[in-house]
Each structure stands twice: as structure tokens, then as C-alpha cells.
Amino acid sequence: MNIRRVFAMAYKEALQIWRDPRSLAIALLMPLMQMTLLGYGVSLDIKHVPLCVFDQQNNQQSRGIVERFVSSGWFSISHTLTRQAGIRHAMDRGECIAALVIPANFSRRLATTGSVGVQAIFDATDVNTTNIAIGYMQGVVALINARIDARWAAAHGVRLPRTGQVDLEQNTWFNETLDSRNFIIPGVVAVILALVGAQLTSLTVSREWERGTMEQLISTPVTALEVMLGKLVPYFVVGLIDAVFCLAAAAWWFGVPFRGSILTLFVTTALFILVVLDIGYLISVRIHSQLGASQVALLITLLPTTLLSGYTFPIDQMPAPIRALTFFVYPRYYVTILRAIFLKGSGLADLWAPSLGLLVYAVIIIWLAARAFRKRLD
Amino acid sequence: MNTAGPAILAEGLTKRFEDFTAVDHLDLRIEKGEIAGFIGPNGAGKSTTIRMLCGLLRPSEGRALVAGFDVDREPEAVREHIGYMSQKFSLYGDLTVRENLRFFGGMYRVARKDMGERTRFAITMAGLSGREDALVRTLAGGWKQRLALGCAILHRPPILFLDEPTSGVEPEARRRFWDLIHDLAADGVTILVSTHYMDEAEYCNRIALIDRGRLVAMGTPSQLRSRHLGGRLFEIRCAPLGAALQVLRDAPGVLEAAIFGDRLHVLLGPGGLDETTLSGFLEEHGVKAQAARLVTASLEDVFVQLVSGHHEGQA
Ligand SMILES: Nc1ncnc2c1ncn2[C@@H]1O[C@H](COP(=O)(O)OP(=O)(O)OP(=O)(O)O)[C@@H](O)[C@H]1O
Ligand SMILES: [Mg+2]
């Protein structure tokens, strides 16, 4: 390998990136955009939680309360029940996730004591959704409290919803949703970098084929390894900038606590970027059209990365054969690493296993990509 | 580089694309310092042959040595000794003149101390002084071609492959390009250049005529002229040309008849018609004709003769 050629290659590639400011802007802004979309998506994607209502009071005041739930946009009434037993029935059939029970003496108790309890029941099969629904419920109740007649506002409000799960511990529940966000956002960073990284390099070799510059290039004594390293260098810089954007957004925008060291973060992130770029490069070497290469890159990174990286679907809850499959899904290592660095403050020594996973991956892909590059037209 | 032996040697060189044979058992021997012209109609297999000689395509059969290295087994050694200009322009359009030169200088590992001088030489040669920082895609055809040549010779290769370097370039620029080729040859560079401009064939030391993947003839321009025509060539003004052509096709003694501008070129073999009877024969068949005139055959006449004869032989 000749370092002069690697430099010449890297310099040329950097110039080409620089001369195409539109693509560069997309490469730098896309991850941030996806970060906001996916980042908010994971915590706010549940709307219109199906709600059963058993309104025993059924007067204007109680119907007003129910109306508030609907107008919040977070709930939609799936059933209006006349018996308590109907709740169980509706939940069993998955027709509602939450139920609201308004007692028969609602108006009288509110009038006499200034405080009244309503019962909220949740289907906790899907803990994530339930947590979010509980959060919504509290939000609506807080709104109702704020609107209680000024006379009563001076005294007490409607008491918070009472259920076995919720009751007094509302604040903890709110934190719980935040916690799941802390858990998911680092995963989102990994997914975005995997997607964007492969896209970046998926075009670099196919572009030479499409523009006809490949024939001249491979008539020189340059080696496959020199071409690859040279081409990766400038994209590595772009990839690192993307990583900085995403990680900064995770820490400051989404407020995920960062407890680890920047050095650990840098080393592992650099390793991950190397893997994702080289996967894009490998695809680019195999597929000579830019469009084809970028689509294949999207296809083979999107599904495994979103489904099997453990960023939303916990790996330890997967069936054993699928769990085994995740070892081939490189973002899973980085998801693990990022969570550990952010939330636990782990250092490189703690993270040797997933880091080794990435390293092995990098070596194998580099080897495959260098082998796949043929200096022939046939 | 192997100092004995020819610069380029091909023996039975063959390339098949699936069941189509693009190059068919080609034998070539090109000595050092020669300008060898590769002439043939479209699809003759010129580019395919050149690509095999550059190690870019694997021969299906046969072998070739370039600078003494086997193109199939030692392609990298071959690449160290050659410069190649592909038929389709293939420098980087989004890089400037200077950046392209710097890039290829890097690929060929031209010593840094030589880079300045070589770059300046290439820029002057291409006539691009003052436009060093122009993006290459903004240059006109002739400049692009000369710059491509400049990039291909940055590392002073002893052997150059130029695949239709002058196609689509205006005549003045073509002439300048050939001056450059002759300058390089004077410095001892071996050049294999393909073209489909017949007049350019005259600029070559030797010509290889290929058609349908086969080597049809090889020799110096004057050898080809005298050896391959097989008859005497006459020029005759007549009208209408198409009818005259029809009539002469089956006339006795006519080996070949072709329209040449506003007149006919007729190749007459022994027996049958001759220069005295030719115009009379045409008049008899209702074609107005002037007297036939003996002309020196151009290479184009030779090629027309060779290529059509070759086709008849095959049919
Ligand atoms: N990769 C390929 N696959 C299949 N057929 C090919 C391939 N490359 C060339 N050919 C065919 O081989 C024949 C010779 O092509 P080649 O490009 O060598 O001709 P050429 O003499 O350079 O013609 P031109 O003057 O048009 O450049 C053509 O019929 C062409 O269609
Ligand atoms: Mg060609």
C-alpha cells in the first residue's frame, strides 16, 4: 500500500464532495432531521388511545369531563359502558387500553367536599403504551383541575385518577416515560448513523462507473485497498460530523444524561462509522449504478437495523433464533455501547465485548470490500 | 521493462462475450518506438483489443505481452509501464485541470520533485496555459483530449494506448494532436492508436486493419497500398452515380466500385473492362460518363477493398 496514492485519492474525493454542496448539505442535515422525526416519533407516536367510559353519574357535568378527554386528542372513546364488567370484556378483546369510571355520586361529592375520585384502569400488557397513556390521563386531569370553577379552585380540585397502578405516584410515571426515551434515543442515534453512513459511501464507486471515470482509474497501478482507504477518509470526516450532530442532539435537545467519557464515545463512534461506511462502500463496489447501490444500501441497512438492533425491541425478549441473528446486526453493538456510555458512564474496559464485535465486523467488511474491488471491466 | 523483444506482442488473442466473438485470434507485433495505427469499422474490436492489452479485460484465449509482461498474469506490472486514454473521455469533470493532473500524478507516483515540471509540460502541451483552474467539464473537446493525453503520459510510460483520441475533435485540433503523438514517438515511446479517420492512417508507421475481430492486413501505408489492392484504380465522373454503381457491380473485370465524393472509384482487374472501354460501357447502359483516369490509391480505397473482400470471403 502506498500512502501517496491514498492521499491523492482522498484529496480527489474530498474535492468532489466539496464541489457538490447540495449532496453535502443533505449528508449533514439529513441525520439531524431524522433525529427529530425519530426522536419525537418514539415518545409521541401514540395518539387516540382507545378509552372505555363507564359514566355512572351521566349528567352534564360528568359528560363534560368525558368530553375533555376526547378534545385533548390523546383519547378516543371506543365504548360507552353501562356495566362495570364491560370493561374487562372490552380490554380482553383489545378494544380499549384504558377505561374511565365516573362514580354515581360524582357531582354531589364535588359539590360538598370539593374533591372527587375517578377511577382509571389500564391494560398493562404493553408497558410502554400504558405508561404513555397514564401520562396523557394525568395531563387531562390536570387540565380539568385547572378549569374547575374558581370557587372550588380556591379549595381543592378533582382528585387524581385512582387505579391500582397509578394513584398517587404520578410523578414517577412521568419519569418513567422519560426514562424510556433516554433508553431509546441512543438507539435512534445508532440507527440513523447506520442508515446515513451506508448511503454516503454507497455512491462513491458506482459514481465512477456511471461517469466513465472508472476505466481510467483502474488503468493506473492503484490497488483496491488504496482506492478504498482513500475514498473512505473524507466520508469518515462527514460521518463523524453527523455523529457529533446526532449525539449532541441526544444530549442537549432530548436531554439524555451523558455520564461517560468523550474519549470512549469518540473511539467507539469512530469504529462504528468505519463499519457503516465500509458496508456502503462494499455495496458500491458490487453494484455499478448509483441508484441501485443507494437503494440496496437502504434496503439492507433499514430492516435489520430497525428490527434487530434492539433500539426499540429489546433483544433479550426476542426468541432465541432471532436473538442469535442479532449478533450479525452491527448496530446492536453500537446501541449497547451508546446506552452504556450515556446512561451508565461505562468506559472502554467495560465495553470490550461490543467494541470487539464492531472491530471484528470492521476487519471482515474491509477485507471483503478490498477483495470485491476488481480492476477489470469484465 | 524487458529490453529485448517487441513492445507489444499478441498471439491468438481472443475475446468472447458470451457466444459473441469480439476479437478473434489476433496476432500483433509492435516494435519499440513505432506508431501503430489500429483501423477498422465500428464494432471491429479495436477497443476490446486495447482493453485486453491494458489488462482491463481478460483474454478468453491466446496471450499478450506488453513491455514483456503477460497482460493476464501480471496486469499490475503492465499498468506500471503504460499510459491509456480510453475512447470515452474519462477524466474528472468536476475537478480542475490542475487537480486532475495532480490526481493522476499521485496514482502513478510521479516523484514530487518532478511533478511541477511535468504538470507545466502537460498544461503547455494541451494548450491550457491560463486555464489551469478551470473545471474540466467546461473545456471543449480538443482541450479535453489533449489533457487526457497529458494525464496518460505524466509518468513517462514507454508504451501508450490511445483509443480513438481524436474522435469528435475538429480537424485543426486533430492535426495538433498528431503532432504531439509524433513528438512522443520521437522520444522513443511506442504508441498504439486506434482511429476510424482514414486520413490519420497515413500518419502511422504501420497499420493494423481489423474487421469483425480479425486482423485483415498489417503493414506500412505504402506496403498496404501496393500489396493489397490487386488491380488498378480508376476515377470516373459520371451521372447518375447510383445507376452507374448498379451497372458496374456485375460488369466483367470490375473488382470494386464505390462512390467517392461526386465521382466513382472503380478497381479494375486483369481481363474484362479497362480504361478505354469503361466509359463506353457506362454510356451503353444509359449513364453519362467522362473518360476514366488512373489514380493513386488512397488507404481508404485499400480498406474498402480489404474489408468488403473479407466479408465476401466469409459469406
Ligand atoms: N462488455 C461487452 N459485452 C458484450 N459485447 C461487447 C462488450 N464490449 C464490446 N462488445 C461488442 O464487441 C464488439 C467490438 O467492440 P469494440 O468496442 O471493441 O469495437 P470498436 O472497434 O472499438 O468499435 P468503435 O469504433 O465503435 O469504438 C462490438 O460488437 C461490441 O458490441
Ligand atoms: Mg472503440
Please provide a written account of the structure.
The complex is a heterodimer of chains A (378) and B (315). Chain A has 378 residues and is mainly alpha-helical. Chain A has two domains: 230 residues, no CATH class; 101 residues, abc type-2 transporter like domain (abc type-2 transporter like fold). In chain A, 67% of the residues lie in helices and 6% in strands. Chain A has a four-stranded mixed β-sheet, sandwiched between helices. In chain A, helix 3 links the parallel strand 1 and strand 2. In chain A, helix 2 packs across helix 11, helix 6 packs across helix 8 and helix 8 packs antiparallel against helix 11. About 7% of the residues of chain A have low confidence. With 315 residues, chain B is an alpha/beta fold. Chain B has two domains: 213 residues, Rossmann fold; 67 residues, Alpha-Beta Plaits (2-Layer Sandwich), CATH 3.30.70. Chain B is 35% helix and 27% strand. Chain B contains eleven helices and 16 strands. Chain B is elongated and about 75 Å long. The two termini of chain B are 43 Å apart. The chains are: A mainly alpha (378), B alpha/beta (315). Chains A and B meet through helix 1 and helix 10 of A and helix 2 and helix 3 of B. Bound molecules: adenosine-5'-triphosphate (ATP) and magnesium ion. The site of adenosine-5'-triphosphate has 13 residues of chain B, from strand 2 and helix 1.
